[in-house]
Amino acid sequence: MNASCGGNTPACSSPDWNQTWYTNTPRFTWCFESTVIAWIPCAYLWICFPFYYLYLRYKNKGYIRMSHIFKTKMVLGFILVILCFSNVFFVLWEISQGIPRAPAFFISPAVVGITMILAMFLTQVERMMGIQSSGVMLIYWLLSFMAAVVMFSSKVQHALEREDHFHHVTTYLYASLVLGELVLFCFADHPPFFSKGVNNPVSTAQNTEKCLPFLHFCVSDISSVLHAFINILLLSCSLFLEFIEDQEAPSWHGYFYAFAMFLLACLQTLFEQRYMYMCLVLGLRLKTAVTGLVYRKVSLKTATVGEIVNLVSVDVQKLMDLIIYFNGTWLAPIRIIICFVFLWQLLGPSALASIAVFLFLLPLNFVITKKRSQFQETQMTHKDERAKLINAVLSNIKVIKLHGWEKTFMEKVIGIRKQELQALKKSQILFSASLIAFVMFAVYTLVDNTHVLDAQKAFVSLTLINILNTAHSFLPFSINAAVQVNCRLHSFFFVQASITIRNGTFCWSKETSPCLRSIDLTVPQGSLLAVVGQVGAGKSSLLSALLGELEKTDGCMTMRDTAAYVPQQAWIQNASVEDNILFGKEMDETWFNRVIDACALQPDLESFPAGQKSEIGEKGINISGGQKQRVNLARAVYQKASIYLLDDPLSAVDAHVGQHIFEHVLGPNGLLKDKTRVLVTHTINILPQVDNIVFLVDGMISETGSYEKLLQKNEAFAEFLHSHVAAEEKAGTGLPAYLKATGLPLCAYIILLFTCQQAVSFSRGYWLSVWTDDPVYNGTQQHSELRVGVFGALGVVQGLFNLFVSTAAVLLGGVLASHKLFLQLLRNVARSPMVFFEQTPIGNLLNRFSKEMDAIDSVIPDKLKSLLGFLFNLLEIYIVIIVATPKAAMAIVPLTVLYAAFQHFYVSTSCQLRRVEAASRSPIYSHIAETFQGSSVIRAYKDQERFISKNNFLVDQNQRICFPGAVADRWLATNLEFLGNGIVLFAALFVAMGRTHLSPGTAGFSISYALQITGVLNWMVRSWTEIENNIVSVERVREYWRTPKEAPWTQNGKLQDQVWLTEGRIEFRNYSLRYRPNLELALKHINLTINGQEKIGITGRTGAGKSTLAVGLLRLVEAAEGAILIDGLDIAQLGLHDLRTKITVIPQDPVLFSGSLRMNLDPLNQYTDADIWTALELTQLKSFVADLPDQLEYQCADQGENLSTGQKQLVCLARAVLRKAKILILDEATAAIDLETDLQIQSTLRTQFKDSTVLTIAHRINTIMDCDRILVLEDGRIAEFDTLEHLIAQKGLFYSLMEESGLA
C-alpha cells in the first residue's frame, strides 16, 4: 500500500492511526480512503459476481421491458463510468505535465470504473432474467455510497488545505450519482413481460423440490451470519464499558460505539427477519406437500379420520414450527463454544466452573425435555382417540339422539379428555434451572482475593450467560421436537399399503383370522355373476377383496379395465344430484337422461325443488334411503366402466322399484347388459336371470354355476333356496372469555407473581451493579462473600418464582380454561338439534374439536406465559434505563407510543386474516372426512386424481391466506425491532453523555439491559401475535354457544309421581312436520290412533314419509302443528331423554362405534353378560360371536367395517332386544338381511316384544304381512290404514304395492 500510495509524498505517507483513533477529531489518511475504503464495494461485487451470475442464469423468469427506472439506472451508471475514467485520464495528464502523483490516484478510479461497468452488466442481465429487485446490487450501491460519504467528508475537511478543484468537483458528483443509484435500486422494476415458466402444479412441485436444499442452505447461512453479528455486538458492548471506565478516552468513542451497536443490531434484525421469512415460506411449502401426502393416504384407510385430522391440523403445524427452530440443533453447540471462549477471555480459569455446571445441567435438561416429549406423545395419543370418538359421534349423531345416548358419549369423550389434560399438565410443570452465573462469579471472586469483578467482566459475562441459557434450553427442545414430529409422521406414512390381489386367502388385517379362504373365481367378460349366502358368509368381503380393500395372505388376483362400485350403504357427496351422478365426468345429456330413467329417478327429480340441480345435504340427509341408493347406482352406471361391483343395491328400494332397476339396469336387457357385473343380492326372484351364481358359506365358495345347474346338484344352494321359498309362502369473543374461563382470582394471582419475579430480577441486577462498583483496596474487593451469598440467594428466589410459581400458575390456569371451554363446546354441540348437524359441515365441527382446541390447549397458555414474562421484562428494562439515565425517558416515551401504534395497526389486520384462514381450513377437513367415507367408491372408479386435485386446490386456497399473515408478522417484527434498536441507541448515547457522573456498574447495568430489548420486543411480538391469532380459536369455539338448542333432556318433576309408558298407546292429533321453516310439510295432518301392544306395519313408496313418522315420534324435529300423545301424555311436554330412552329404534343404516362389541350392544353398561348372550342367541349371532377371538370384547373397527352390513344390522337388533322397550320402531331394519334370517328375526321380535307396540317401516311387503294393521303413506298423508284383509279387499295403493312385489 505504501508503494501504491507514494510513500515519499507527505499526503501519502504511511497511515498514522493516532490521527484516526487517538484524537478528538478523527479522520482516515488519504491513502487509506483511496485504496481500502474505495475498494471494499469493488471487492464485494467481484466476489459475488460468479455465484450471482450462475444464479441469474438458473433463475430465468422472462425478460422485463425497458422501464424508466432501468433507463435512469443505466444513464447514471454510464455517467459514473465516464466520471471514474475522466479521473484516470486527468491524473495521467497531470503526470505528463510533471506534477507528482501517487499510483493510487489513477489505480483506484480505474478499479472503481471497471466495477461500475460490471454493475451495469449485471443490471442488464437482471432485466433479461426478469429480476425486479436485487439484494446483491442494493448492498453494492449501499457500500459504494458509504465509501463515497467517507471520501466526501474528507474532501470537505481538506477543502481549505489544498486547492484541487477537479478532484473536489468529481468527488461531489460521484457521491450524488451513487446516492441516486442507491435510491433507484430501492424500488422494484416492472414484472416480467413474458415468463418462460408454465403455471403447472407438477412443475411447481418439482421446482420446489429442487429449491428446498438451496433454501435450507441459505437459511443456515443467514443463521450463521446472525450469530456472527451477535458476537460482534458483544464485543462492542465490552468496548463501550471499557470506554465508560476510561475517563481519558475521547468522547466520540462513546458515540461511535453507540452507533456501532445500533447498526449491528439493525443488521441483526434484517438478517433474522429474512431468516424467519424464508423459514415460513419453506414451512408453507412443506405444509402443502405433507398435507397432500397425508390426503393420498386417506383413501388407503391406514388411519382413522380423527388421526388424519390431527395430523393435518396439529402435526403439520408442528412441522412448520420445527423449520424455524431446527437450525438450533447444530447452531446451539457453536453458540455455546463461542460463549465459553468469551467467558475464558473475561474470567480465565473460573469459566471452567460454568462449563462444569453447564455439563451437569445439560443431561438433566435433555432428560426433562425427553420426559416432556413422552408426555406430549401420550397427550397426542389421547387427542387422536378423542378426535376419533368425536368424529364417530358427529357422523352418527342421529342414532345417538334417537337412543338418548348424548350423556353417555359425552362422558366417554370427557374421560379421554381428562387423560389428555393430565398428560398436558405433567408436561407443563417440568422445568430446568440455571445456576451458571452464581457458580461462576462465586468461583471467580472467592478463589483469589485479587480477582476484581468490574462492570465489564460482570455484565458482559451476564449477557453471555443469557445467550448460553437460551442455547442450553433450546438444544434438547429442537432435537426432541424433531424426533416427535418425525415419529408421528413416519409412523403414518410408512405403513404397509393394500395390494390389489385375486384368487386367494384374504383378511381385514394381518392380526385377524382370514374372512375369505381358498377363493377360486372366474368371471367371464360381459357376464352377470350373483353372489349369495347367509349373513356373515363373506359376500361384501368378496367385493372388498376385488377392490383391494383386504390384506392378501395367499394367492393372487388380477382385475382388468376400469371398475365401478355401488356400496350397500350409499355414499353421497354434499353436492347437487347432477354432480353426484356425473362424479367429475363431462355432461352427456342423452346418456344422463337414459341413466335417470333406468334408475327410476325421474319422478324424484320432478319432485325436487330444483330438479337435477337440487343440492343434497351432507351424507344425503335430505333424501330418503331409497333415493340415496338410486343416486348411488346412477353414479356407477353413468361412468361407463367395464366392471361393476354391486353390493346389494336393491335392498334399500321398494320391490317394484327394485324390479324396474333390475330390468332396466342390471338384467339381460338393461343398460349394463354388455358389462361384467358382480352382484351381491338377497333378492331370490332375480337369480334365474343371472349368468352364474356363487354361493358362499363361512368365507368359502361352496358352489358356483348357473341357476339350473345348482338346482340340479341339489346341495347347499338348493337347500338355501328352498328354505327361502318356503319362508316366503309362510310369511306372505376471545381473550376476555379465555381469562374469564381461567378465573379472575387466578389471573390476579398470576400478575402478582410475575411482578414479584421481576422485582427480584431487578434487585439481582442492581446488586450486581453495586458489587462491581465496590472500591478496590490493595488489589482486592471487600465483602465478596456477602455479595456472592446475596447474589446467589436472589437467583434462587427468582428461579422459584419463574419456574415453580409463575410458569406453573399460567400453564395450569391454561389447562383449567381449556377444560372449561371444551366442556362448554361439547355440551352445546350435543344439545344442538338435528337441523344444526344437517346444515353444519362435519369439517367445521372437527376443526373446532381438533385445531381450535389444540390452540387453546397448547399455544395460548404457552404464549401467554411468554408474553407476560417478556412484558414484565420490558418494564424492568425501561425502569433500569430511566433510573440510570432519566433523560432517556424523552426517547423511550415516543418510541413506546410508536410501538403501540404499530401493534394496533397490525392486530386488526392479523385477526381478520386468522379468521379467514380458519374458515378456509374447514373445507379441507370436510373433504378429508368425505373422502374417507367414500374411499372404496373413489378407488373403484379410479377417480383418485380428481379428489387429490380438489384437495390440492383447497390447500392452496388456505395457503394463499396463510402467506399474507406470515408476511404481516415479519413486517411488524421488523418495525418493532428497529424501535428496540432505537432504544438501545438512545440508552447508549445518554450513558456516553453522562459518563462523568455515572458509575461503571450503573452504566453496565443500563447497557446490558438495553441490549436485551430487541430480543425481548421480538419475542414479545411473536407471543402477542400468536395470542391474537390463536385467541380467534376461543371465538370460534364460542360461536356454537349461541346456536339454537333442542328441548331440555329431562323435565324435573314431570314423571316423578307417575309411572309412564306402561301400555304403549300412540295417538297422532292433526300432526304435521317440516324439516326446516323454509321447506314444505313432510307430514301433513296425520290423525291416527295405535293401541298398546299393537303391531303396525308402515309402508309406502320412496319419499312417502315413512321414516319421517319415526323422526316426529322421537322429536328429532319438533311438530309444525298438532300433537303426539303416548299413553295420554303429550310428548312435547316431556324431556327428550325421558321420551327417547323409553322407545327403541333400529334405524335404516346400522351404526357401530369403534370399541368392543359389548360396548356397542350395551353403551350404558346396564346389562349382565348373560343378558347379552341371550340377546345374541335370539338374533342368530351367538355362534358368530362365540367364534370371535375375544368374543364380547372383540374390537369393532371404525364404523364397524370388520363386520358385514347384515351382521351390523343384527347387532343393532340385539341391542334392541336387550332394552325391551314398550315401543319399538324398526326403520327398514332388515333390508340388508337375507329373507330366511329376516323371518327368523321377525319371529324373535314377535315373541320378545309381544307386550310392546311395534312400528315396522319396511320396503319388503312380506315383512309386514303379519302385522295387526298396516299404515300406507303417500306424499306425507295417510292413504290407507287397516288390517291386511281389508286392504287387500279394497284393492287400493297397498294392493298395487303387493302386485309390484309379486305377492298378489
UniProtKB/TrEMBL annotation:
Enzyme class: translocase
The UniProt record lists the keyword 4Fe-4S: no
Residue stretches making up the ABC transporter domain: 501-723, 1068-1300
Keyword entries, A-Z: ATP-binding, Membrane, Nucleotide-binding, Transmembrane, Transmembrane helix, Transport
MF annotations from Gene Ontology: ABC-type glutathione S-conjugate transporter activity; ATP binding; ATP hydrolysis activity
Residues spanning the membrane: 36-55, 75-93, 105-123, 135-152, 172-190, 211-234, 254-271, 322-344, 350-368, 429-447, 459-483, 788-817, 978-997
Keyword Repressor: no
Enzyme Commission code(s) on record: 7.6.2.3
Record field: catalytic activity: leukotriene C4(in) + ATP + H2O = leukotriene C4(out) + ADP + phosphate + H(+)
ABC transmembrane type-1 domain mapped to chain residues: 229-447, 750-1029
Membrane-topology annotation of the record: Multi-pass membrane protein
GO cellular component, one term: membrane
Entry's family note: Belongs to the ABC transporter superfamily. ABCC family. Conjugate transporter (TC 3.A.1.208) subfamily.
Protein name: ABC-type glutathione-S-conjugate transporter
